[in-house]
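In keeping with the milestone schedule agreed at the kick-off meeting, the structural modelling team has produced records for the first pair of proteins. Each record is given below as a sequence line and a structure-token line. The laboratory manager (R.T.) confirmed that both were archived under the project's standard naming scheme.
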Amino acid sequence: MILTLALLLRLLSPANAAIADGDNAALYDTLCGLVNLGRSPPKALNCESNADTEFTGIVDLNISVASEKWRNILRDSNPKSTKAEIAQKAGITEDLVDDTWTANWPLWSASAKKLSDTATTPERIKKLQTSKLQGLAGELARVHTTAAATTVSEIKKQIDALKATLQDKAVSGAAETLRKLVYGDKSTQTTFNPDHVFAGGSSGRAADCIATKANTVAATLVCVCVKDSGGTPAHPCHKSMTHNQNWNKAAALSGSGAWDELIKHCPQPATNELTAARLSQLTTAIRHAIKVDSDHGYLGVIDGSKNCEGTTSNGVCVKYANYIVAGKVATGKIPWLEGLESLATKLETYEEACQQTKMLTHQLKQAVDSAYATIHNLNHADLGIPNKQIKKVVENSAQTADIKKQECEKIEKAELCKEKQPKCKWEGPDEKDGKHCKMNTTAVEQQATQAAATGDATAAATSGVNCSKHTKKEDCEAENKNVKTGEKAKCGWIEEKCKDSSFLLTKKFALSVVSAAFAALLF
């Protein structure tokens, strides 16, 4: 919209005006910015992510808490096992081996082999001492790591989907692309050579300063800034330029003297960082600087015959014949500019993918760290007798959910499905039969957590004291008067009631375990 408006304003405004010193100064500054990107390799683009390392960490954690039977199966199996081979090793039918197993089997097998030797076991796993997680603790650890591994795997898929964009060769080769757009395809260094910057070499200013010849940034710069041998204008770009080498309009440009004078006034920045925003700003400025006269485009000041011969009478410019076709800017008229614009677009896509990758990697790391912290805490938790009830919930939750899931999915009529509420819910249109009856996971999970939340009577047996008989806080806390420093308190005033001191922690832990169990099963 902005470019279209700017173009319209140029079409409506007079194209010709008296040429004066410094008329191309702003254009010089913009072209200077592009030259600097080409002559000094920009800072290498890099989008580092340690997602692969973190993902390996969750795989190792998951395998470390697996049963000894499974660790041995994975350790001794072929990483490239087929479905049939996996089923045989696991002692199950082949139809139970889904794509997740076959996709992850190489990772699981490699991890099991690595963890079977203390010399190759990562220090992070060693510190957890997962071998101590026996019985209930081991079961809870497996529930948590399975859920965490599922979450991490989904995040990893999103990161992997961005890799192709981050490995775009157009972006990794940006420095070389910029150099060639400035100095020419035939150039090998960042030195000015008329035979390279002008297509077919230089032959004469009016013949050189047209679209088909001045097809580099460097050629464009000398066309709009080098002084003609006639002396007018004396300083097309900046008055500080001495112009020791002029360009006779009737002769070819030779050597690099004229270029060296121009570039001397184009200092390189301290940090030459290539970004989509910086490149887009420069290319947009070039587009906006193009004047339109009789559908031809011109970079630089024009007058008279507008043949861009470098004089006050006929213009100090580059001509782009038929720049406008059918009222629109034609493509292919300024290849070097279009090349820069294309690179800016690719850079923008790259930068967005990089930002997304960093955000997802942060989320992935948080999930992995949380899983490790959970196992660490579980290894140091005082589970106590009340957790027999948690064990029962954990053992039954998967089986219960699976049964209810099957019951719901057998129903293919909306009316029958609604009769099974709240454990079932209809997810399709009422008038259309089909497999639209699904288990209401929220309702089923709530029932499970309610089962996990009871436990006062069992908790009382743990400490040998009936804490619940006390109705006053001071009487409740008095049960702890003979408890020695470092020992666990017998009773605690919890939720306005006197309870076994381990109850609250156990209850909260039970609820979190049930949630994790359902997440692992259902999602």
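The second protein of the pair:
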Amino acid sequence: MRSLAIFFAGTLMLCGTLLAVDPPDGDFPILGGSLGQTIRIAITADGRAGCAAVVGFRNSLNAPPEPDRTLSLAAGNTGFVDLNLSRLAPRFGQRVELRPFVQVTSGQCDGSVEVFEVFTGHTTASLRLFTGLSDSPKPGTPGLVPPPDPDFPALGAVRGQLVRLGVARTQGPPEPDTPGLVDPPEPECQAVLGLQTATATRSGRRSGSPSRPASSTSWISTRRRCRVRRAASPFALC
């Protein structure tokens, strides 16, 4: 049995960045922002097939501040829907609260949302909305499922920031019929880490091999050469 825990610290080296866990089925969290910020929803199509989704935002009255957009994505590609919060909070001291809205119409999609500064591109809040959401889940099963290996949501970064991917080695309990050993052989654990662009192009691949149970290794990608804000999805091949 393969036992591999993969985590990534979307390590945007800035103060105040917030990372959160998945919300309950169908409940997307409320995010707030103010003048000079943009809120972005990123939708990534499943790597084996494309997907389509209606994407937008809802205010406190459950009304869209802008018309919803329809994204139609090829396998592995990522699309974005941005909303400039300066339009809704035009003065300093004002703040607006919005809730992401996503309706998958075909295929399977992954979704994430983030708030970033317009002038610097630095992320101030980032969280995953769902992974593997389908338009027609089987009866009795939720639309949200644990992230399948190796699908992860998209995140953005700009010049001077770092993105860190980590892989940790774990070891499960022995099989019931396996005789106890003082020093049982340790199963091999290997992974290839890297980033995938919005057009499904993979770059910066590096192999990682944690040597002992509970040990870990990491890979860092620097965005020092980027002049514009870019988004990428981490990937891991085990």
